[in-house]
């Protein structure tokens, strides 16, 4: 992977870094500036970025990435229970275990492509969910969920520190990870994950993945073996999912099998398509939009709606409350579905396609009707 970064890539990384680090400020007016939601913005953005490496670059649609997400969460909590409450060993453990699991699942699933690959990944994910829910209860604690207890050995912490009263909380080199400290830790990991995805996308390896997506059959006919590249993309994507799962275990140490359900896999697919598959910023924007809908729109009730429509006459206000209540609260999925339908119909490339269309309107090449780098034709001299 080349160490050289183009000017546009560097500006994109700087802009993304500033946007992520200032999220508590510019999201506060939208009611999303509190740490718990900001953590989820960062965590699921990493999940979507990793999924985009497989789906957006390579074209392989996986319906089983929640399995790696859940495995990462379980691995992180076991690190807390057995070793230390420090976040770094937990995340390392989560990434390594998820990578090994993704290597196994990818080796088997990538024997097929297209819809057969998608069905295989879905089947493996459901098998993983059922194993976690009912079969591997000594490891996962079944439907109750895996959680911290006072009886956990935590050999490293107990050897170095005196145990305090009550359940411990995750730390980073001794610093408690709570509130905005936890957010900025998640934000730093998001920036690093985005940078690595940016470098992968622009590297020869990334170009090879894009070639596989464009026409894998032609690459086979030229004698090129695409299997190692698709397997590497699958494993890297699984590592991103495991990292995100480990981060969620840091901010929410109670881990249940629901993190491995097929609905969680479908959610990351929706995030990527909504924002724009194959783009760098698209999956991040898609993750933020869906988590915003899930946490903000679902919390709106009739009292809030009545206050919002109070400027209207009484009869009209009551009618508007009745209509809009179907799209918030428990019905927020209806709003999300309508947004998704509108984007698929009018912006098949996701939100980023809309951004590109707007940007194209302000480019000089569009206004002049000629590419900016195309020279004006010189008149032919008279013969």
From TrEMBL:
Keyword Disulfide bond part of the UniProt annotation: no
Signal peptide extent: none
Transmembrane parts of this sequence: 37-55, 87-108, 115-136, 182-209, 229-250, 270-289, 296-312, 332-351
Keywords: Cell membrane, Membrane, Transmembrane, Transmembrane helix
Topology of the protein relative to the lipid bilayer: Multi-pass membrane protein
Pfam families per the UniProt record, alphabetical: BPD_transp_2
PANTHER family the record matches: ABC TRANSPORTER ATP-BINDING PROTEIN, HIGH-AFFINITY BRANCHED-CHAIN AMINO ACID TRANSPORT SYSTEM PERMEASE
Protein name from the UniProt record: Branched-chain amino acid ABC transporter permease
Lineage per the UniProt record: Bacteria, Pseudomonadati, Pseudomonadota, Alphaproteobacteria, Hyphomicrobiales
């Amino acid at each position: 992977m080349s160490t050289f970064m183009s000017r546009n890539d560097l500006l994109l990384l700087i802009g993304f870094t500033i946007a992520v680090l200032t999220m508590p400020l510019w999201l506060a007016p939208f009611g999303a500036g509190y740490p718990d939601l900001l953590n989820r913005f960062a965590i699921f953005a990493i999940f979507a970025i990793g999924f985009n490496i497989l789906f957006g670059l390579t074209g392989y649609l996986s319906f089983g990435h929640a399995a790696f997400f859940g495995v990462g969460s379980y691995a992180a909590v076991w690190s807390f229970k057995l070793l230390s409450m420090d976040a770094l060993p937990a995340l390392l453990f989560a990434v390594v275990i998820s990578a090994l699991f993704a290597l196994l699942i990818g080796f088997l699933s990538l024997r097929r492509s297209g819809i057969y690959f998608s069905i295989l990944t879905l089947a493996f994910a459901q098998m993983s969910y059922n194993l976690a829910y009912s079969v591997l209860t000594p490891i996962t604690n079944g439907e109750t969920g895996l959680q911290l207890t006072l009886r956990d050995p935590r050999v490293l912490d107990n050897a170095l520190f005196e145990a305090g009263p009550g359940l411990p909380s995750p730390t980073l080199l001794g610093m408690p990870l709570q509130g905005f400290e936890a957010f900025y830790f998640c934000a730093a990991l998001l920036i690093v994950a985005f940078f690595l995805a940016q470098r992968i996308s622009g590297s020869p390896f990334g170009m090879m993945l894009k070639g596989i997506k464009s026409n894998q059959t032609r690459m086979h006919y030229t004698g090129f073996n695409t299997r190692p590249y698709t397997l590497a993309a699958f494993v890297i994507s699984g590592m991103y999912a495991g990292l995100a799962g480990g981060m969620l275990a840091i901010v929410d140490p109670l881990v249940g099998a629901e993190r491995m359900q097929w609905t969680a896999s479908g959610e990351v697919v929706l995030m990527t398509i909504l924002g724009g598959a194959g783009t760098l910023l698209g999956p991040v924007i898609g993750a933020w939009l869906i988590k915003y809908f899930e946490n903000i729109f679902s919390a709106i009730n009739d009292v809030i709606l009545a206050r919002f429509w109070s400027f209207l006459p009484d009869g009209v206000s009551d009618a508007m409350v009745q209509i809009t209540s179907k799209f918030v609260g428990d019905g927020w999925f209806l709003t999300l579905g309508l947004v998704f339908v509108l984007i698929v119909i009018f912006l098949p490339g996701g939100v980023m396609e809309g951004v590109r269309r707007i940007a194209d309107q302000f480019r000089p090449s569009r206004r002049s009707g000629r590419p900016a780098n195309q020279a004006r034709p010189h008149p032919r001299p008279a013969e």
